Write a sequence for this structure.
């Protein structure tokens, strides 16, 4: 784009490094930490620059002010999703996260309103999460304060919240299917974020090399076979007057529209939405929870202040979302954990829906846009010493919670995370539920300096064991 020329004499040319044939600027990047390389380049080229990632010609938006201006003030113009090869293989353009145009609008609207209805239904989201938290606490108690790996159990717990919403049921922890589902999602997301998959997405010629896309599709096949079998079971028992899950609501709508050849309510969209909710809804939330437990373990003075607030406001009662407004300290901690965890540092890519002049630069319709969240959550102009973990930045001198505009872990605008409300409920109820019952300690040898991010599409902390010591 820009073709090296400007479209009018007063239009600025988007700066950027000179690309090489085929690989573009890939030789300048650390493929394991692309978000870091992109932030470093913004220090040279500024908040808007172009980059060639293999055959993808992208525009990077960096820093809170620029990302917000694009996604919020020009929400429509920046709201499309580009075609990304691996997600095209998985979803074929159906579902929500990687679908486009009217398919995306219809699926997003339906999913949001259905999740909201369940929130108000007989078994609210809050109750489903609270129930899951009780099982998690039992599991932690069984560890008797010894170091154990929390990854799989947290992933399984969060998977259960999603299956409870989408299918109306949870799995017991000793059901091998639950651990299989949780590890399938975990492994697949790791592979999706691998350098080999990045190359697969960026340079079509590398498709024929043995990459990670083959094991990814094998996992997706297994995952989707399970989802298909489960929704067919639901179809057999479907009672339109007693809808108990997202799947029931979708199937009822499918039957209502079955005469309409243009209906979006078909099996491909259902499978794709279910796959997305599982993939987008588990690793992100479970990864943030793991960050939280580890950070509290290595910042014991902060952990004990959270526990004091829990004791004062909730005591031994069941934690409820409504407690949150009386708990500014806990609220600040959870915000800082999310900011620091920076779990989707690259964000998902966007695409322009029209030709647009943005901050004096011409960006054509169909341009691949990277609204870099790493550059927002660690923006020096918004957060003092952004690489430090410091919950005080979300508190004023009277200890009241202070909102920070650049707190954007769920992104912003039309494509803002569809599960943000659910994720916030989960983070609050799980954290408070766990800190009410346990004090977390690092295992021997683990200190602040070795609580580091993993690499991948999402950035959970590198696997560390943890000790959960019962408080009473
Ligand atoms: C801490 C937890 C989570 C974080 C940090 C997070 C973050 C994000 C981010 C950064 C995006 C990309 C937004 C954009 O394109 O601008 C996204 C999209 C999405 N997320 Fe989340 N997410 C979380 C949890 C969840 C949960 C629990 C669900 C589902 C139940 C979910 C479902 C989705 C979906 C469906 C999209 C695609 C939205 C669209 O394209 O319209 N996420 N999320």
């Amino acid at each position: 784009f820009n073709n090296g020329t400007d479209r009018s004499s007063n239009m600025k040319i988007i700066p950027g490094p000179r690309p090489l044939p085929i690989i573009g600027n890939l030789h300048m990047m650390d493929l394991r930490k692309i978000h870091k390389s992109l932030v470093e380049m913004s220090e040279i080229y500024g908040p808007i620059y172009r980059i060639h990632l293999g055959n993808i010609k992208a525009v990077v938006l960096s820093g809170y002010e620029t990302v917000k201006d694009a996604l919020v003030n020009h929400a429509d113009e920046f709201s499309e999703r580009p075609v990304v090869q691996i997600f095209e293989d998985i979803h074929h353009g159906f579902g929500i996260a990687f679908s486009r145009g009217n398919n995306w609008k219809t699926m997003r609207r339906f999913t949001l309103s259905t999740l909201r209805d369940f929130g108000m239904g007989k078994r609210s989201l809050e109750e489903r999460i609270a129930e899951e938290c009780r099982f998690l606490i039992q599991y932690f108690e069984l560890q008797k304060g010894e170091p154990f790996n929390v990854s799989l159990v947290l992933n399984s717990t969060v998977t259960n919240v999603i299956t409870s919403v989408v299918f109306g049921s949870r799995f017991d922890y000793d059901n091998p299917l639950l651990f299989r589902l949780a590890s399938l999602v975990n492994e697949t997301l790791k592979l999706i974020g691998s350098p080999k998959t990045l190359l697969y997405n960026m340079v079509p010629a590398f498709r024929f090399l043995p990459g990670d896309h083959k094991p990814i599709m094998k996992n997706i096949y297994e995952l989707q076979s399970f989802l298909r079998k489960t929704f067919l079971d639901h179809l057999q028992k479907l009672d339109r007057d007693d809808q108990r899950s997202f799947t029931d609501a979708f199937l009822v709508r499918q039957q209502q529209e079955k005469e309409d050849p243009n209906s979006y309510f078909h099996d491909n969209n259902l499978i794709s939405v279910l796959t997305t909710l599982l993939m987008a809804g588990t690793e992100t939330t479970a990864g943030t929870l793991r960050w939280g437990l580890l950070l509290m373990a290595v910042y014991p003075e902060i952990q004990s202040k959270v526990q004091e607030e829990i004791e004062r406001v909730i005591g031994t009662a069941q934690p409820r979302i409504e407690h949150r407004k009386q708990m500014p300290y806990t609220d600040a901690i959870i915000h800082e954990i999310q900011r620091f965890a920076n779990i989707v540092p690259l964000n998902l890519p966007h695409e322009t829906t029209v030709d647009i002049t943005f901050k004096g630069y011409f960006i054509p319709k169909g341009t691949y846009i990277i609204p870099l969240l790493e550059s927002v959550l660690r923006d020096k102009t918004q957060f003092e010493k952004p690489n430090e973990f410091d919950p005080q930045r979300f508190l004023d001198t009277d200890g009241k919670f202070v909102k920070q505009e650049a707190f954007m872990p769920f992104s912003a605008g039309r494509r803002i995370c569809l599960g943000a409300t659910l994720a916030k409920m989960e983070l609050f109820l799980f954290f408070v539920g766990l800190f009410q019952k346990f004090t977390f300690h690092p295992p021997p040898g683990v200190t602040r300096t070795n609580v580091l991010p993993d690499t991948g599409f999402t950035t959970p902390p590198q696997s560390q064991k943890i000790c959960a010591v019962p408080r009473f």
Remarks:
- The beta strands are 48-53, 56-61, 148-149, 350-351, 356-358, 361-363, 368-371, 438-441, 465-470.
- The first helix runs from residue 34 to 45.
- Confidence is low (pLDDT under 50) at residues 2-8.
